[in-house]
């Protein structure tokens, strides 16, 4: 262990420092950081931009953690013991290699912000109790492999931010309309062709739409806006695509119409073949096997 890491641990213990930042230190194994798991008093641990491939079960010993940041590592799996962190509020696992989440992951009663951006997750990666995370205010699932968003998303009624950008989503469940506190919805870069009529329940949204780097909102006044809706780069069916050209307010006016609800029902009954997947995803770094060089 380098002197600098040893010093960080000693200072935290001696001065009772609650925040420990070990980002960008070339750490490949948390167990190599001598004394790290004796720091049961710390509330914030940052291990971003390292070379971790796993998280040891010992993570449960850091029982007072409120913020845990593993952004930009090579983590392929998590221990079930991570659900023992009962005080955890912010968990950043973005830019790793996760294919699945451990059983019991939903047993984090204080979790408010969960970042799983840029992994290899899909709807089958989520444990059965994932949607027990009812304290979540922000859920980032962008740059993964979701084709379907489970209907249980409607249980996360405190969600204010839901980011689903750049997945393989072919539809959104009607239960998304139950997220009445939602302020940001990011669904750009998927395979969506229609929107569920229930989305129009978000009647207070002041929304804007970005389409292939061109702002189509035109004269829409976004000053002081509280809500954001981004939906570009989806193969919308012609009626919706036409409404987007007129502005997002027209889209939401259209999907709340009886005409649209009828057409949406017919569309879903027809069960059309979804658009093709984006083959560029195979180029993701997280798809490439670990080698001696990138370990």
Automatic annotation (TrEMBL):
Q: Specify residue ranges for compositional bias: Basic and acidic residues.
A: 7-23, 274-283
GO CC term (a single one): focal adhesion
- Provide one Gene Ontology biological process annotation: positive regulation of cell-substrate adhesion
Taxonomy, superkingdom: Eukaryota
InterPro entries in the record, alphabetically? Answer: Leu-rich_rpt (IPR001611), Leu-rich_rpt_4 (IPR025875), Leu-rich_rpt_typical-subtyp (IPR003591), LRR_dom_sf (IPR032675), LRR_domain-containing (IPR050216), LRR_R13L4/SHOC2-like (IPR055414)
Instruction: Write down the Pfam families for this protein, in alphabetical order.
Output: LRR_1, LRR_14, LRR_4
Per UniProt, residues of the Disease resistance R13L4/SHOC-2-like LRR domain are: 110-191
Read off the Gene3D superfamilies from this record: Ribonuclease Inhibitor (3.80.10.10)
Kindly state which keywords UniProt assigns to this record, in alphabetical order: Acetylation, Leucine-rich repeat, Repeat
The answer on whether this UniProt entry bears the keyword Metal-binding reads: no
Tell me the segments the record calls region Disordered. Answer: 1-23, 268-295
Q: Which SUPFAM superfamilies does the UniProt record give?
A: L domain-like (SSF52058)
Keyword Repeat recorded: yes
Function in brief: Potentially plays a role in the Ras signal transduction pathway. Capable of suppressing v-Ras transformation in vitro.
PANTHER family, per database record: PTHR48051, RAS SUPPRESSOR PROTEIN 1
Indicate what this protein is called per its UniProt record. Answer: Ras suppressor protein 1
